[in-house]
């Protein structure tokens, strides 16, 4: 799988409370959640995000609460992938389980850069800067979940 | 190479002699937990697995605690969805208003977790049960749905950091100060993907209530779990709360640790985590005068009877400062009743506090104590992220019940000087 998109850039420790504040967790409706995505960190996100954009961030992305509403809101916003130096572990597994592509990679990426991610070969190419970085592809077990389109599909298909 | 305590529990639940850090296993689950926010998403996912029934009606706990008693129509609809699911599937451990409590205080109290268990919960503070010598970790709603359908979860075996504890806490210092001190030392991603394993002579000097508080906040250092060795105190606690037999696991003497920290409990002072990360820990030599508008004493971190007793001892015969809204939330119905019988609730009301029925409420900015723009709160809760308790420009300072009570009296962030 390959994804190419324009980067929206954030820093370290982007927590799930700013990705989707708890005051909106009285619904599980993905569209409604997406309408408040990133609200407490970046009130402009909802207006400027375009389908296929990529979020790039620093370390510990998605720290805090286990709310799956966070990756759901990001996915529903049209974001094609999230790149971070590291992910908080619950966010990491939630993203895999719902099929939101994520990449753990310490690459130089700026706001507005065009980035291409080659998931199969573990290559991240920054078209704007002309740089490349490598990342470890997912182990086979997780690739099976992703290729099935999420954990429950993988279970139904008997892949785990 | 030996295994850590966590690795031994994981190996046993994967039907394996041994496991090593980094490998992915499928583990059998002893208990799966969900609340009124995460379960509705799991219920929607559950049907995708193609199973009509849950794997075991006795091994699922559903606790309506976050936005309950229902704060608005949408929250009421969410609870209704879970209530109907619990009824249809015959879930035994379903806890609604009147019998519920904050999930991580409730489950140990009900004897639903014992040493050696493997527990996943669709709530990040599920790591609390490590205090009982169980492996427990937070997951999302999809993991919860898969667990309810199959009784299994995929887990990556974590490496560990060891915290070797010695000595005894000083007066008015406890588990909250210890865990804030540790997070201040290693950072909010200091234990990312790892276990925090507590060990050493000092463990015997830490109460079960304080151990639950410490393990509860392991997630705030990014950890997969935090775990305490099982000792006489643990076994006495488990015996008093249920009738399931514990399975005691201990780390091998040659277990590998990524890092080992030595901590003398007597060297820790009252500690406060400043906005907007739990790692911004300070002791009172570095805390200026900061006026506050609200104090919250409660939550899965510090809403147990011992926490309320500490706060009541400080507040007894005194009155909170004018303008400081002080909200006390016993974490479970049993704690509420015990606090009532012990006269603690009377002390709180006489001191000018509002006492609430159990709820997570203000901790996550749900209800029962939301902050306005520019307001500051000292809270015994676990997170002080931007907007956590209300307006994005409000501030939460994390502290112990003792510091919270002393601050309520002083009208500013204050140490306990008694």
Describe this structure in words.
The complex is a heterodimer of chains A (160) and B (418). Chain A has 160 residues and is of the alpha/beta class. In chain A, 29% of the residues lie in helices and 20% in strands. Chain B is of the alpha/beta class and 418 residues long. Chain B has a 5-stranded parallel β-sheet, with helices on one face. Chain B has a 5-stranded parallel β-sheet with strand order 16-15-14-17-18. In chain B, strand 9 (195-199), helix 7 (208-216) and strand 10 form a beta-alpha-beta unit. The chains are: A alpha/beta (160), B alpha/beta (418). Chains A and B meet through helix 4, helix 5, helix 6 and helix 7 of A and helix 2, helix 3 and helix 5 of B.
Task: Write the element-wise H/E pattern of chain A from the N-terminal end onward.
Answer: EHHHEHEHEEEEHH
**CATH architecture descriptor text of the largest domain in chain B:** 2-Layer Sandwich
In DSSP terms (H or I, runs of 4 or more residues), the helix count of chain B works out at 13
What portion of the residues of chain A fall into strands of 2 or more residues? 15-25%
Distance linking N and C termini of chain A = 21 Å
Query: Please, what is the oligomeric state?
Result: heterodimer
By DSSP, the count of extended strands of chain A is 7
Return residue spans of chain B where pLDDT drops below 50 for at least 5 consecutive residues: none
Helical content of chain B stands at 25-40%
- The best one-word shape of chain B is globular
> Could you say what the CATH topology of chain A is called?
Aconitase, domain 4
CATH C-level of the largest domain in chain B = Alpha Beta
Number of separate structural domains of chain A: 1
CATH homologous superfamily assignment of the largest domain in chain B = Aconitase, domain 3
Kindly name the structural category of chain B. Answer: alpha/beta
